[in-house]
Structure formats: C-alpha cells, structure tokens
Design brief:
Helices cover 67% and strands 0% of the residues. With 86 residues, it is an all-alpha fold. The chain folds into 2 domains: 7-45, no CATH class; 49-86. The radius of gyration is 22 Å and the shape is elongated. This is Ribbon-helix-helix protein, CopG family.
Length: 86
C-alpha cells in the first residue's frame, strides 16, 4: 500500500530521522495515532458509565483526584510495610 506524504512532512522526516530508521519511525507514529483513535472511541462509547450516584469518587475531577491520591498512598504504605517486613 503506497502512502504519499506531503513534501513538508517528507523533508522534516529526512531532516530528523536517520536513513534506515524512517520506516520504523512511521510505523511507530502510525501505531501511536491508531492507539489514540481507539482510546478516543472507547471514551465516547463508555461515556457516562460511572454515575456520581454509583461512584461518588468519580463525581468531580477533585473527588477523582482525591481518590487516586488515597489509593496511591495506601499502595505506598503497603509497599513500605512489606519492605520493612512488618
């Protein structure tokens, strides 16, 4: 499948990516872009699945942030206890 690149993109690719590495670079960039597209699609598809009534920890960005910080703190404390042998 031949792919055409705009001249500007081709010039920049040649300028910044070594010969012999360009195909790999394009493949990785394409994979990254496809992953982002799939993630965006999944976010749209599952939007609203976590309601504030069912999951108050996700009710607001601040509540979500506090929940994540609490989970991380618990994990850090558990790891510290495990490393200390308690």
């Amino acid at each position: 499948m031949p792919i055409r690149l705009p001249e500007r993109v081709l010039r920049e690719l040649k300028e910044h990516v070594k010969r012999g590495k360009r195909s790999e670079f394009v493949v990785k960039a394409t994979e990254k872009a496809l992953t982002e597209l799939k993630q965006a699609k999944a976010l749209k598809e599952y939007r609203g699945i976590f309601t504030a009534g069912q999951y108050p920890e996700f009710a607001t960005p601040d509540a979500t942030r506090a929940w994540v910080e609490a989970i991380r703190k618990e994990a850090d404390e558990r790891m510290k206890r495990d490393l200390e042998g308690n």
